[in-house]
Amino acid sequence: MEELFRTKIKQHPDIVVVLKESGERELQKIYDTDYYWGTGHDGSGKNKMGKLWMKLRDELQ
Fold it and tell me: What torsion, rounded to 10 degrees, do the Cα atoms 10, 12, 18, 23 define?
């Protein structure tokens, strides 16, 4: 997934702008039924997608 996100960043420079504008805020993939990539219905999910975007954002700065 990380490789896919890196490719997406290269292909869509607007994503870089959005990531940088998000500053230090926590990014969350709000998805009720996904407890791995998202937050899950009750917020107890692992939010792996949000964490991956934050990792890539940190590398951009």
Answer: 0
Q: pLDDT (tens digit, 9 = 90+) per residue, 13-33?
A: 999 999 999 999 999 999 999
CA 35 distance to own-chain centroid: 15
Could you give the CA distance from residue 6 to residue 42 in angstroms, rounded to a whole number? 29
Q: Given this model, what pLDDT does residue 44 score?
A: 97
The structure tokens listed for 16 are: 């870089």
- Helix, strand or coil for residue 30? coil
CB-hemisphere CA count at 13 Å for 57? 19
The Cα-based distances of 15 to 40, 45, 51 in angstroms read: 24, 24, 15
